[in-house]
Amino acid sequence: MTQKKYQTNNKLLGENASDAGIDQIWQQDNQAWWDWYVTLAENKNLYDDQDLIDLPSLPKCNPSKKSDVEKELVCPYELSENQCQSFRKEGFIKLPNVLSKDAVLHLRLELVNFLSKTFDVDIDTENSNRFLSLEMMWLENSFIRKYVLSPRIAKIAADLLGVPSVRLYHDNTLAKEPGCGRTPWHCDDDHFPLDTQEVVTAWIPAQPIPMDMGPLAFAKPLTIFDLVKNIKFNKFDTSYDQQVSETFRLNEVEIEDGPFAIGEVSFHHNRSFHTAAANRTTQTRIVLANTFFEDGARVINEPTMVSGDWQKFIPNVGPGEIAASELNPICWPPKN
User: What is the mean pLDDT of residues 116-136?
Assistant: First the structure.
């Protein structure tokens, strides 16, 4: 398997690219951000010259089940107190059967169509080794909107955080094409310019994710954030990813990197360090990631380039102001 390299350049990094800091505002779009960001993952000699692994085709979704899926997305998923406590200790949780098989297959069909149209490719046969990303789909696709604003998903987020109400930061489809390499170690605290730690991302696979496809992997417990919080981020190379990985190795940090069954969804905290391996299969790994935050949170005073195109997600809200734009609806509790 040969991984294509998407090199960083001064245009992507902005006018001050020679400055090793990250204090400048990101100047390009969200896909350009991902093209840059994946270059920061260490992939040296990773799976070189290995063939991609064929996976069985996914079943077709049943159009007659679409109304059932819509009902499912508003039906509560009951969490135990032990599950909530586990999330708060470990920084993440993987929950089985959050979605039915039909709900997953319908989601994948919609996302494949959206991605294929946007990038002008057949996403199920494309093999350019890229990490494709789309965000704010809920504004354009009424069916995807039901997954993004789902009371079922948002209530889980609120219960895990232990807050009465959550807003949407943004949705994000993450498509790791066959042959695409690792996602670098990171925590979302650096990416979401929100002045709160009550932030959680629902990571919703649109197919099963076996080990060879690169499931999301989490370092635990949540307090390992303190081990690596002072490692200096470098926007030019893989040194940050390598240093985090080495720190975890030396401290024998436990990593949860198991596969995802169909319908299984993970939720991870803003400070949960996570990564994902390369996609060594012939099938694109597609995930819908919805990020929620506690109602009442403010934008931080000094967003940086690691926050990406954040003003697209919180329009007409400045640093220090409450993040409650028209694009950040309250998802739980639902309006009557």
Answer: 85
